[in-house]
Amino acid sequence: MYNLESEFLLDPNLHFLNYxxxxxxxxxxxxxxxxxxxxxxxxxxxxxxxxxxxxxxxSRDVLANYCGALPQELxxxxxxxxxxxxxxxxxxxxxxxxxxxxxxxYGACEKTWxxxxxKKGFTLVKANIQLPILNKEQVVNDFFKGFTKNTxxxxxxxxxxxxxxxxxIKEICQKAKSLGLITIVxxxxxxxxxxxxxxxxxxxxxxxACHKWLLTPKGSSFLYAKKDKQSLLEPLVVSWGYNADLxxxxxxxxxxxxxxxxxVAAFLCIEAALNFRTKHQWQTVSETCRxxxxxxxxxxCKLLNTSALCTISDEFLGQMFSIPIKTTxxxxxKKTLLEDYKIExxxxxxxxxxYLRYSLNGFNTRNNLVHLYDSxxxxxxxATLLEI
Length: 388
What we know:
The protein has 13 helices and 12 strands. The chain has helices spanning 19-22, 27-42, 44-67, 80-90, 107-120, 136-144, 169-178, 198-201, 251-257, 270-279, 282-303, 330-341, 366-382; strands at residues 15-16, 74-77, 98-102, 123-127, 151-157, 182-187, 205-209, 221-225, 320-324, 343-344, 347-350, 353-359.
C-alpha cells in the first residue's frame, strides 16, 4: 500500500490516529462538496426547487447499491444521533415495555434512549457483554440474558465506539426476529469500514455515518427503514414533506427528506467518495490497515500490562483497536500525547474502564504506530500519567 497522506487535508505535522471519531475527507471529494455549495449559492432557487430532488435521488441510488438496500428505504440525515432520536421518539413504547441494549453503546445514543425512557415510561435494559470477547456465541448469550416477556425492541451497535469491537449483529438480529422484536442497529462505524448488506442483515432500522470511513464530508449519514416498517416512524422535524402538495410515492422520503432550507451538499458526495476509493484500491488499503491494527495490538497490551478486549482476529476487529489503560488523568494524557508527541488519539472513559483507541486509514503508515508505541513507553517511564 502506498501512502495517501497527500490526498487528504489533514495537518501533516500530526500522527493522526483518530480516524474513528469524525473521519477525514480527501481533497478530491471535498472539491466536489464545495462545487455543490457553489452551485447552491450561484442560483439557490433553481438548486433547491428544481435540481435538488434529482441530485438526492441519484445519490440515494448510489448509496443503496453500495449498502444492499432499496433507494426508497434510505434517507439522508446529518448524523446517526439524529436517526437514533427519530427511532426512540417514534417507536410505540409504553410503561412496562423494555428496550434491550448493551453496556457498550455510544454515550450520545445511550442518553437518547435514557431521555425517551424517562419521558415515555419504558425501561432501557443494558445487557452486560463480558470482556474479553472470545466467540460470537458468548456475545449472543450475554445479550439475550436481558430478554424478558416485556422486551419489545433491541438497540445495538454493529461496531462499538469506545471499545472498537465488531459485534455479531446478524446472529443477534436473527434471534431477535424469532422473538418478534423490533431490531434497531447503530452502524455509525460500518459504511466503508466493513462489508454492509442491509438486505442480508434483515434489520428493521439502521443508521450509518458516511462521513467516517466512507470518506464523505462531515454531516453526511443515512437512516434505513425496512419498507414494511416505515409506517412506525414519525418525522423528527415536521416540514414541507408532511401532507405535501406534490407527494412522491414514498411518505417516508417526503416526511424525512423535505425539511426546509439546509446545506445538503455533503449528502451528494457519496459517488465521489466511492470513486476515490475505487481509484486508490481501498480494499487493499483497508486490509493493510487492519493487518497493522492486529500486528501491534499484542505489543501495546504487553507494554501497558493489560489484556485485549477480544480475540485478535478479523471477526472482532476492523481498523480500530482500543487498549484498556490505567490512568487517573485521561484528559491530561490525551493533551500530552497531542502537544508533546503530536499524536491525535482519543483517551475515553466508558463506565468503569478507560481506553486508548487507535484507528487507521489510508493516510497512515506503520511508522504512526511505532511512534505511538515509543511515546507511550516514554510516558510510562515518567510514571505520572500511566500505570502498569
